[in-house]
Amino acid sequence: MAATRARRTETEPVRRAQLLRAARKVFRAKGYDGASVSEIVREAGVAQGTFYLYFPSKRDAAVSLRTGLMEDMAQAITTAVESRTSFEDRLESLIAATFKVARKNMDLFSLAFIGADQTHSKMPSAPLEHALPLRVITDLFRDAVDAGEMERMDPEIAARLTLGLLRQSVIEAYVFSDAEESNRIEQGVSALLLNALVRRTG
User: Domains (ranges, CATH) in the chain?
Assistant: First the structure.
């Protein structure tokens, strides 16, 4: 009995990931409104009841996909600022990492921020400024201000504004724009933040 429970438990993360992959594929093809649980389980190759063991509704699957996206973004931001290079280099890395994650997940950004925020009022917004990235960037900015590498300003306010700008920029770049325009947006955001935040001497 214990062995059976262990095997079942071991398969739960695999099954959940399988359902999320199927949900992502169906959302990408049909959009949030056009997708159905029936199509998701057909894509996953499981019974409909299996879906409800993991997700109470289609909405919960979409929220889980969005949460995974935000976790990937948080990890990318954290990794980008861990180096011991200059503040300017770490800021450039942070911006590049944000756009890289967005570029790889354009469909999820559309689902998370366009469908969720504008079409589905019952799906709460999940802004980029959640706890971990905000804390990481606030600490980066505070250290840079103390070291004289960043213009003197409130680190937390600067972090919140930076994250807000990055969030809106990646939506603009990867939901509403083509590849050429996306590159221009990334370059423009990078230039804007570097010029605004990095303290120049001499």
Answer: 1-55 (1.10.10.60), 65-197 (1.10.357.10)
